[in-house]
Design goal:
This protein is mainly alpha-helical. The chain has helices at residues 2-16, 18-26, 40-60, 70-79, 84-111, 120-142, 147-160, 167-175, 182-214, 228-253, 276-287, 297-313, 315-318, 324-351, and strands spanning 29-31, 225-227, 291-292, 295-296. The strands form 2 sheets. It has a two-stranded antiparallel sheet with strand order 1-2. Bound molecules: protoporphyrin IX containing FE (HEM).
Amino acid sequence: MRGSLAAAYAWLDERFDLGALVEFARHKRVPVHRGSVFYYAGGVTAFLFLLQVGTGILLLMYYRVGTDASYESVRYITTKVPFGWLMRSVHSWGANLMVLFVLLHMLSVLFMKAYRKPRELTWLTGCALLGLSMAFGFSGYLLPWNELAYFATKVGTDIVGQVPLVGHWLLRLVRGGDEVTGATLSRFFGLHVAILPALLTSLMGVHLLFVQTQGMAGADRAKKTMAFFPNFLLRDAIFWLVVLNAVCALAVFFPWELGKKADALASAPTGIKPEWYFLSQYQFLKVLPGRIGPVAGELVGIAVIGAAGLVFALVPFWERLVPEGRRDRAVELFGWVSLAVLGAMTAWGYLS
Ligand code: HEM
């Protein structure tokens, strides 16, 4: 076996100079310190994305899009297709865990200041990946065409309509008309199974290429490091297995509900809320007064949320305005305050 592998390697190396590739994989070293466990968050996110693609392709085998087919096909998947219920629950729990790990990865990168020169673009591609991951959640949520998803999508897309000047155009673009209908379902389906996968895959490729090219932040200064390939990667794989088990356990013990089919003529059930990762924004918009001076409260809310996102994305640049001696503390404080505000608004949204 060892002989044939070596022969295959030599054959390929003669034709493609694998040496450079192996060196490229091998040169990356990972710092070993108290916070090293957070280095697995990015890899786990990538693994969960692959799990989503795998289970998504299986669901696509039976899922049919349309107001008279989507709900029925998901019900067929969960009641008639062998292990269909498991694939659907793994896909739903996987989506939530992927967003959780993206946030964990982003916060760990922030507190480790791993966005600093020369990694500003890694950070910015990361911010875009966060946006794409949440768009995946939002578009996928509507596809079962059940009551919860229908009204949550109505609330979510209503917010888009508040954007000044282009609001109504944007709303019609997202919904495929003035209301949430079969046209919205088709658009969200196209977004979820074609546009977003293409965007996220290519952007993740760029993100990982940056990381592989530049190496891990702090590796050059760290007292102790470990080779990424194979040592760190094998540890990564153990984490993926643990996460896979966790997703399967959640899917088995808390299978994802389907609920009632969406009915556009019915009134919205009380207590409709978006997914947890949209709750803080939703609650913030909800508690704002109808009007703030001459401006609609929701409009002010959208502007504040947009500005907060921008401040977050531009951390690598505005932190340079802080005197060097106080920069680390300023960014840590910014991180903790952001976490506290997001956590409090999410809890408030969940409890109210
Ligand atoms: C689909 C989403 C994402 C995936 C799959 C992903 C994947 C990864 C992986 C595998 C690494 C190397 C190991 C590690 O540090 O964890 C990494 C590093 C990095 N990521 Fe991400 N990431 C994602 C989103 C983000 C986000 C949202 C941000 C920030 C806003 C971000 C910023 C960074 C930075 C700055 C590094 C370099 C860290 C260093 O050199 O120490 N990433 N990413």
